Amino acid sequence: MKDLHIYNSLSGEKEKFIPLEEGFVGMYVCGPTVYSNVHLGNVRTFMSFDMVFRYLKHLGYTVRYVRNITDAGHLENDADSGEDRISKKANLEKIEPMEVVQRYTVDFHQTLNDFNFLPPSIEPTATGHIIEQIETIKEIIKNGFAYEVNGSVYFDVLKFNETKDYGKLSKRNIEDLIHNTRTLDGQSDKKNPQDFALWKKAEKYHIMRWPSPWSDGFPGWHLECTAMSTKYLGKKFDIHGGGMDLKFPHHECEIAQSEASHGNDPVNVWMHANMLTLNGQKMAKSTGNNILPYEFFTGKSKHLSKKYSASVVRFFILQAHYRSVLDFSDKALLASEKGYNKLMDAVNTLSAIKASNKTSDFDIMVWIEDCYKAMNDDFNSPILIAELFRIVKFINQINDQQATISPQDLALISKHIKEFVFDILGLKTEISSVTRFEGKLKETVDLLISMRKEARANKDFEMSDKIRDSLKEIGIQLKDGKDGTIFTIEN
Ligand code: AMP
Ligand code: ZN
User: Fold this and answer.
1) What is the distance in A from the centroid of ligand 1 to the CA of 283?
2) Which residues surround ligand 2, an ion (CB under 5 A)?
3) Cis ω before 193 (30° cut-off from 0)
4) Which of 54, 81, 340, 475 counts the most CB atoms within 10 A of its CB?
5) Nearest Cα residue to 316 out of 343, 289, 283, 284
6) pLDDT tier at 452 (50, 70, 90 boundaries)?
């Protein structure tokens, strides 16, 4: 198979992926700040990396996938002042910060489970790595890139930029940054407004605090990812991912912290997933412009005309490339549901298809190669899905006796459909699949199918049509093929 190429946000180009150690991949993805329920935008970003994780594993790599939980240090407005998002919520609800963390971590896991995510290899928390963060700060101070003022420690961006390149990931230059940042209001301890906090002394009211050599306080938001990625993946690792909105300042600061503490750029390939929008605006917790996952399963949302299954939503998301903006709409989701059902129907049909002695009317080897070509081209899932629909068409032609397939090719299609649809895209056969409707329901529909067959044999077409049409009315569709009649169920 052709080599995997990944778009590296640092170089701005698609690069051939060469892991630092043959056969192994270290991947770090910034996780959620657990102060409220995840919305579908968050899900999209994590799903992009779930697909990356799945594909790397499929290619045979041993992947150590680290995705953290931010449970301290992330202040309002992503800035160095204001309240910690978690303590703010805890104050509001009069509960412990760790109750907030627990509630929304459980919600996060539940949601990802609903969407059939694979768990990461390690899921470290910021509060579980305060010691590592303090050690990183000590290194940065020792190397002359940070300073302490009144119990807080700040990263000296200008000093760093004298010998290194602050802004290389987000393509910002320091002069523009200086020009665009507000001047300090006299209340800040920072030397320059571009500097960012590594450690903040806690005010009296601040409940989330830890002892350190500088003060009782808490780590800056960017620091946890540097400390935890270094701890679990080393000073240099293969892939770092996150949403596009984290590129600056979060990831830019991570690079600076690593270079300042252990001297090298920590990441080989930077990957950024693009945003999910709603009504053309970024889905966000803070603005309320979002849809929560459970709303899809109940259908109770002003943005939805009906309920949808998790696999349909997953299919909708993966129909767009992870680097493109995706705008959510009920109409688009309805179209995805149709596509998803068509794909799953073909998967069902495939299991009932019989091979013939004739050669296949389709070049399966070229199709397989084209599927890999799509995924190897920076995880191009929409092209992969288009390739899957080419095979759907062929499967339906065989079922309608308009095409033939050899036994070897049938085995190859079945194997690759399983791999691409279920292992790599992570879809599940949850709604239109006959197989899900085992037991009494399946027996009942099968009984009606045999009664219809009998009616047709007796030329009682009125009755046979009545059975078919009545089932259709309640969303059960009969499909006649050469091996008999199968049924699918709409959700
Ligand atoms: P947060 O919990 O706010 O730190 O966000 C968790 C992840 O979700 C980050 O990687 C964000 O970049 C990502 N994210 C936030 N909003 C969106 C959105 N509207 N579309 C896609 N990803 C998002
Ligand atoms: Zn991070």
Assistant:
1) 8
2) 30, 225
3) no
4) 340
5) 343
6) very high
The answer to whether 393 touches 400, Cβ cutoff 8 Å, is: no
Closest residue to atom 11 of ligand 1, CA basis = 243
Tell whether 123 and 43 lie within a shared domain: yes
Q: What pLDDT does residue 87 have? A: 85
Mutate which of 115, 245, 270, 282 for ligand 1? The one with the most ligand atoms within 8 Å of its CB, which is 245
Are residues 37 and 171 located together in one domain of the fold?
yes
* Atom of ligand 1 at shortest range from CA of 30: 10
pTM of the model: 0.88
Number of residues assigned to the chain? 491
Q: Of the candidates 321, 328, 323, which has an alpha carbon nearest to the alpha carbon of residue 284?
A: 328
363 in a structural domain: yes
Residue 88 has pLDDT above 90, yes or no: no
User: Do 160 and 30 have their domain in common?
Assistant: yes
Closest ligand 1 atom to the C-alpha of 29?
Answer: 10
C-alpha to C-alpha distance for 27 and 69, rounded to whole angstroms: 15
Nearest atom within ligand 1 for CA of residue 42? 8
Answer whether residue 435 shows pLDDT above 50: no
Together in a domain, 37 and 158: yes
| pLDDT band, very low/low/confident/very high, at 475 (cuts 50, 70, 90) | confident
Characterize 86-95 residue by residue with b for buried, 16 or more Cβ atoms within 10 angstroms of its Cβ, and e for exposed.
bbbbbeeeee
Decide: 121 and 63 in contact? Cβ < 8 Å.
Answer: yes
The tokens describing 394, both together, are 């062929």
CATH number, residue 300: 1.10.730
Write the residue with the smallest CA distance to atom 12 of ligand 1. 243
Closest C-alpha residue for ligand 1 atom 15: 42
pLDDT in tens, 21-41: 999 999 999 999 999 999 999
